[in-house]
Write a structure and sequence with these properties.
single chain, 53 residues, mainly alpha, 2 helices, 38% helix, elongated
Amino acid sequence: MRLTFAQKILGRKVHQKVRAGDCVIVDVDVMMASDITRPIAIKAFESIEGKQQ
């Protein structure tokens, strides 16, 4: 069975096969957001002590 794009990306980050329903925790390299959702996402990220680079 072929892997989805998300499965390929996440599998590379965790160095193992990832299937639908798996729960993985990975570091975020890049984030994309719209003008509407970005401020909300940044506020939530900073509230859990995340730092912008």
